[in-house]
Amino acid sequence: MIAHLQRASNTAGLLAYLYGPGERGDQSNPHLVGGDCHGAPIDLLTHAYLAHALDAPVERLGIRAPERPVWVCSVRSDPRHRDLSDAQWAEVANRLAAVTVAPDGDPDACRWIGLRNQPRQVHVVATLAREDGRLHNAYRDAFRLQTECHRIAGELGHLPASPQPTSLVPEKSMPITVTIAAEPSGSVVARGGDSLAKSLLNHAGFAYTNDWHGPRHRLPTSMDRHEQAAVAAHAAEMLRAARCYTVHLDPALESRAKVTASAALSVGDGLVDLTDRIRATTTAGDLAREVSTLAAPDTGVLDRLIEALCAAEEQLDDLDPLGTAHALGDRFGVAWEHVGAAQNVLLGIDARIRHVGEGDHAQMRTATAEPPSTRHAALSASPAATQASASRTTTPSGPAPAPPAGPARDSAPRNR
Fold first, then answer.
1. Distance from C-alpha of 284 to C-alpha of 290, rounded to nearest angstrom
2. Which of 349, 369, 352 lies closest to 360, judged by CA?
3. Burial track 191-222 (b if 16+ CB lie within 10 A, e otherwise)
4. Most buried residue, 43, 230, 276, 278, by most Cβ within 10 Å?
5. Bridge partners of 114?
6. Average pLDDT, stretch 385-411?
7. What are phi and psi of 118, to 5 degrees?
8. Range list of H helices, 280-357
């Protein structure tokens, strides 16, 4: 028994279709088998007046009525079994309505009818407006309908018998060994494993090769030693998590990976400590002192981050003599420009925070009347900015231009 749930916008048009011959002319003898329209004599009404009886709560909603207020559930029975009688289909329609639009004992439930116009099928039509002016929540109706249909089919004996469970014989298998080691040539190689291990190693960054040295997985030789150690340690963790491999990781790779991870965490841990100190402040002066660590010129966190991004952009240029990574370098440039903008916004904010709660509003207005116009002060001590300034050999005559909003960047294509 299968339920198919749909929504419609017009009750009268839907009932005209259900009472008609249908698209393939296979609908005949349409008749009601059940329903509840809160006192309306549905057995005596034609389908036009029946639509008015169903739509009465929807019309009372006015502009609050949904665009598709008609709820339609079509249920088919298993063709391998005999058809149900009208009384049985009426019970099916009542049960499906009870778990969705018309719960038992609810005096304000939605109006609905059960209509048959084909063998082995019943249509449950309802409007989603309740008698109390609220709308029915149809979020889990499809799940409730299919669950109830499954229960009804089981009661009718339409479900196949469940197969008898068979006892499982535990399989005995030996763990597969995978060895990841650094070779004297400097490359990192993984040997052993099966198809799953191959997939995990490929996902980690290893590449499969098979030559006179035998089948194995290797890391690209372009990786530096610390990156190789990090990838090898990550691959070992994935293989161990699969619980079907014995992984032997070269101790040198393992120790190098730990050093790399601790160095990366130390930077993040410093910011976590700063965040904790900011949250622990109890006065405006304490908060101003901690916030000054973020945007302080020359020594602030944002200034150091700008220097790191500038260094990364310059280093990428040095490592790319053919100029093929121009777009990648621009990403670093855009990044430090945004960080510089954030630093410009925070310049002098620690001095303003100190006045919070002191009542000196005039001084606060003076402090906030003229915000800094550029980020030049924040970037003046940056090595990248100094180098960019030194590269300018000529200065245009006339009034001095406003300082740039960060280290100078050449927007023209690079010529190598």
1. 10
2. 352
3. ebbeeebeebbeebbbeeeeeeeeebbbbeee
4. 230
5. 34, 124
6. 45
7. -145, 155
8. 284-295, 301-318, 326-346, 349-353
Cross-sheet strand order for the sheet of 214-218: 207-211, 214-218, 188-192, 176-182, 245-249
Which letter does DSSP use for residue 44 in this model? G
What is the DSSP secondary structure assignment for residue 21, as one 8-state letter? -
What per-residue confidence (pLDDT) applies to 404?
43
- The conformational region for residue 258 under phi > 0 = left, psi -120 to 50 = alpha, else beta, is alpha
Task: Provide the 10 A C-beta neighbour count for residue 387.
Answer: 13
Question: 16-25, 88-97, 145-154, 226-235: which has the minimum mean pLDDT?
Answer: 226-235
**Residues in Cβ contact with 233 at an 8 Å cutoff, skipping those fewer than 6 apart:** 249, 253, 254, 257, 258, 261
Question: Alpha-carbon distance 257 to 226, whole Å?
Answer: 7
| Residue from 290, 280, 301 nearest 349 by CA | 290
DSSP letters spanning 251-281: HHHHHHHHHHHHHHHHHHHHHHHHHHHHHT-
Closest CA to 43 of 55, 54, 33: 33
